[in-house]
Write a structure and sequence with these properties.
This protein is of the alpha/beta class and 251 residues long. The chain contains eight helices and ten strands. The longest helix is centred in the N-terminal third of the chain and has 17 residues. It has one domain: Vaccinia Virus protein VP39 (Rossmann fold, 3-Layer(aba) Sandwich). The radius of gyration is 18 Å and the shape is globular. The strands form two sheets. An eight-stranded mixed beta sheet has the order 3-2-1-4-5-10-8-9. A two-stranded antiparallel sheet has the order 6-7. Helices cover 32% and strands 28% of the residues.
C-alpha cells in the first residue's frame, strides 16, 4: 500500500510539475517545497538518486548567515519552489532562469534571462543561491543558445559582480573528489582542483561534500570534509556544497 502511494507521489512530483504548480497557484508553494523534499527523502529508501534531498536542507541550514530582509538571487529557479520558502522566511527574492518560472509567488520577482549577462547593477545582492546549476551553464541543455565551455567561469564572474562586498554565494554541484574532471553534453563533474579554480575569487567559508553509497537497497549520502575527500575514490559523482564569500580580488 505504502509503495503504491509513494509511486503516485513520484509520478506527480518528479515526472511532471502539475502538482507543485497547483499548490503554488493556490498559495501553498511553501507546502509544495516541503512535500518535494519529503518525497525526495523517501526515494532514498528505494535506492533512487536524489541530490535535492541533500542540497535543499543544506541550503536552508546556511540561511542563518543572512539577516532578515536580505536580498537573494535564486539562479536556475525554473524547476524549484525554493523561492516560496525563502520568501516565507522574510527574505526578498529574485529568481533568474532562461526558462519560464511556472510556480506563482507574489513575493518573488522573476527575470527570464541568461545568468551570463544578467543586466543587473553591481553590488546589489546580499546572497546568491545556485543549486546544481553551474555545471550546466554553457552546455547544450535546457534550451541554452549561448554555448561556451567556460560558461561556468563566466557565470561566477557575473555573480561576483552583482554580489555586495561580503555577500555570500551558496553553491552546490556534482563532485568527483580527486578523480579527473569530466564533462558530458548534460553537465560538468568537478574534481577538487577544478572546483577550487572555479571559485578562486571567492573566500571559502564552508565546504561540505557528500558521497552516495547504496546500503541494503537504501541510498545513503555520507558527509565528508576536505581531508576525507582526499582519501576516498569517487566511483559515482557526489555533491559539493560550498558557502563562498565575495572577495575583492579582480577576475
Amino acid at each position: 500500500m505504502f509503495s503504491k502511494i509513494f509511486d503516485s507521489l513520484k509520478l506527480l512530483m518528479f515526472h511532471n510539475r502539475i502538482f507543485l504548480r497547483l499548490l503554488s497557484l493556490t498559495g501553498l508553494g511553501r507546502l509544495a517545497f516541503w512535500l518535494s523534499i519529503a518525497v525526495k527523502r523517501l526515494s532514498l529508501l528505494y535506492g533512487s538518486w536524489s541530490q535535492r534531498a541533500v542540497e535543499y536542507p543544506w541550503v536552508l541550514r546556511q540561511l542563518k548567515l543572512l539577516k532578515s530582509g536580505a536580498l537573494i538571487l535564486d539562479v536556475g529557479c525554473a524547476e524549484s519552489v525554493l523561492s516560496h520558502e525563502l520568501a516565507a522566511r522574510k527574505f526578498r527574492v529574485v529568481g533568474i532562469d532562461i526558462r519560464d518560472y511556472p510556480f506563482k509567488n507574489k513575493n518573488t520577482h522573476f527575470i527570464k534571462r541568461n545568468v551570463l549577462n544578467t543586466g543587473l547593477p553591481d553590488n546589489i545582492f546580499d546572497a546568491v543561491i545556485m543549486v546544481s546549476t553551474i555545471e550546466h551553464i554553457g552546455l547544450k541543455v535546457y534550451g541554452q543558445k549561448i554555448i561556451d565551455d567556460d560558461g561556468d567561469i563566466k557565470a561566477l564572474k557575473e555573480l561576483h559582480r552583482i554580489l555586495k562586498p561580503g555577500g555570500y554565494l551558496l553553491l552546490t554541484t556534482p563532485f568527483i573528489g580527486n578523480q579527473p574532471p569530466r564533462i558530458t553534453e548534460f553537465e560538468r563533474n568537478y574534481n577538487i582542483q577544478r572546483l577550487m579554480e572555479l571559485t578562486r575569487n571567492f573566500e571559502s567559508i564552508i565546504e561540505d561534500y557528500f558521497y552516495p553509497e547504496l546500503r541494503g537497497g537504501r541510498l545513503i549520502w555520507i558527509k565528508l570534509n576536505r581531508e576525507q575527500v582526499g582519501k576516498r575514490i569517487f566511483t559515482n559523482p557526489g555533491i559539493a556544497c560550498l558557502v563562498l564569500k565575495k572577495s575583492t580580488h579582480a577576475f
